[in-house]
Amino acid sequence: MGNKVMFENGKLIIPDNPIVNFIEGDGIGIDITPPVIKVINAAVKKAYDGKREIEWREIYAGEKAFKKLGSYLPDETPELIKEYKIAIKGPLTTPVGGGFRSLNVSLRQVLDLYACIRPVNYVKGVPSPMKNPEKLDIILFRENTEDVYAGIEFEPGSDESNKIIELLKKFGKNPRDNSAIGIKPISEFGTKRLVRMAIEYAIENKRKVVTLVHKGNIMKFTEGYFKNWGYELAKDEFRDQIVTEEEIWGGASSDGKIIINDRIADSMFQQIILRPDEYDVLATPNLNGDYLSDAAAAQVGGLGMAPGANVREDVALFEATHGTAPKYAGKDKVNPSSLILSGVMMLDHMKWGKAAKLIKDALEKTIMQKKVTYDLARQLENVTPIKASEFGDAIITNL
Ligand code: NAP
After folding, report:
1. Where are the alpha helices (DSSP H) in 112-158?
2. Residue 266 among the catalytic residues
3. One of 290, 294, 314, 361 is an active-site residue; which one?
4. What is the pLDDT of residues 304-314, one digit of tens each?
5. pLDDT band at 86 (very low <50, low <70, confident <90, very high)
6. Which of 83, 102, 87 is nearest to 311 (CA)?
7. What is the C-alpha to C-alpha distance for residues 301 and 74, in angstroms, rounded to an integer?
8. The whole model's pTM is what?
9. What angle do CA 118, 71, 111 make, to 5 degrees?
10. Distance (Å, rounded) from C-alpha 183 to C-alpha 151?
11. Is 314 noted as a catalytic residue in this protein?
12. 1-114+309-399 architecture in CATH?
């Protein structure tokens, strides 16, 4: 019988037989989730000689939930994620006209999973458009609850947008009549808790730089304050452990300290291509992070290889970053690596690092042996693709 993961005094307590919830996912979820669970189980067994074991429990969201329980997102699903603290999910279809913006966005909002964490680093053997893809080794902390992404939008010509336009005119601003209106709230609270998590991660994982990515030169009061509050938090709460780039320019030593700097978002897209090894931990508002994490993932092999998690202090939901690829659903064809690497993140989060490393090394070995699914095979010469399930089994053999 499994036991519950607990959260006490700011720390997760993981039993040797934790209950972990999983959502299979729509479309290709059926192809990737079973091999991922199999790989994680095999790695945990090998790493801890059978003394540790995850008890998996299926919970429902998406089409499977609709068929079984009559709702795309049953109330009990976020409740169970909250109660059991750790969950992993395959991709979910956004039902058209169902009243949801997206099931993923709904889950993040209902659970207040305020940080989207995406590590981006190179797995040897993966085809990449870059000459030195291994130079990029960053982890993005993207704010998940605010910004234009929070969905405060009004249709052109609607009563609400007309009223807002009238109000803006009173403030001396002149949007065109019949404009669509979107609102971009960025708060001190939302910014600081995100930047705090990024700096704490950097300290715990001995990273060297935390970069605040913003467009504050143009959006001075939203993105600009993201930057200002980020620096303020760093100085107020981590003074002994950090030094700002500006302080270094003024002669301060960075010895053993985490450097806090900031970059304008557009320049950041160049920086990760031209000077990838100068970056480490990035903290971004919601929209910048959305664009930047996919662009960064492209440099190391694309979304099929990109893991991710949505987290708050006590709850974490790990997920594949790609969608449901419906044309491949049930064909046992697609690459399960994104979800496998999210599983690696999950094991690291549980401090089961030995099992995490076993999987990461075995995944790399499998790809180096050119045992790969169609998406990687088509970018390599003379490689015959294997099935998703065969790829999972090959990783288990290589553990
Ligand atoms: P998608 O499902 O990510 O698929 C786009 C293309 O990416 C696929 O046709 C395939 O490329 C490639 N791909 C995706 N996953 C792959 C994998 N595991 N292995 C190999 N190749 C993979 O994006 P979409 O077609 O735009 O979206 C479909 C549905 O997914 C929508 O309902 C959308 O709302 C949903 N979605 C969900 C999530 C989520 O749950 N987190 C995220 C994004 C989208 P090729 O055709 O070139 O082989």
Report:
1. none
2. yes
3. 290
4. 888 999 999 99
5. very high
6. 87
7. 35
8. 0.93
9. 35
10. 8
11. no
12. 3-Layer(aba) Sandwich (3.40)
Which pLDDT belongs to residue 100?
Answer: 54
Model confidence at 11: pLDDT above 60 = yes
Ligand 1 atom index nearest CA of 32: 18
Query: How many Å is the maximal CA-CA distance in the chain?
Result: 70
Asked if 12 and 85 touch (Cβ cutoff 8 Å), the reply is yes
290 catalytically annotated: yes
Instruction: Tell me whether residue 149 is one of the annotated catalytic residues.
Output: yes
Cα(125)–Cα(380) distance, rounded to whole angstroms?
10
Q: Find the helix or strand (DSSP H, E) in which 365 lies.
A: helix 353-368
Angle value at C-alpha 344, between 365 and 276, nearest 5 degrees: 75
Question: How many CB atoms sit inside 10 A of residue 83's CB?
Answer: 13
93 lines ligand 1 (CB under 6 A): yes
Side-chain half-sphere of 135: how many Cα atoms within 13 Å?
12
Q: How many CB atoms lie within 10 A of CB 25?
A: 27
Helices vs. strands in the chain: H and E counts, helices first:
14, 15
What is the predicted pLDDT for the residue at 305?
Answer: 87
Instruction: Write the CB contacts of 397 (distance below 8 Å, at least 6 apart in sequence).
Output: none
What is the CATH T-level fold of the domain 129-146+186-299, as seen in this structure? Isopropylmalate Dehydrogenase (3.40.718)
User: Contact, 112 vs 134, CB < 8 A?
Assistant: no
Helix axes 388-398, 353-368, angle to 10 degrees: 120
Which of 145, 93, 141 shows the shortest CA–CA distance to 296?
141
Question: In the chain, what are the domain boundaries?
Answer: 1-114+309-399, 129-146+186-299, 147-185
Structural contact between residues 310 and 107, judged by C-beta atoms closer than 8 angstroms: yes
Q: Is 63 in the pocket of ligand 1 (CB under 6 A)?
A: no
| Mutate-to-test residue for ligand 1 from 303, 324, 372, 386, highest number of ligand atoms within 8 A of CB | 324
Backbone angles phi, psi at 351, to 5 degrees: 65, 30
On whether the CB atoms of residues 395 and 340 are closer than 8 A, the answer is: yes
Note the residue count of the chain.
Answer: 399
**Is residue 357 very low, low, confident or very high in pLDDT (cuts 50, 70, 90)?**
very high
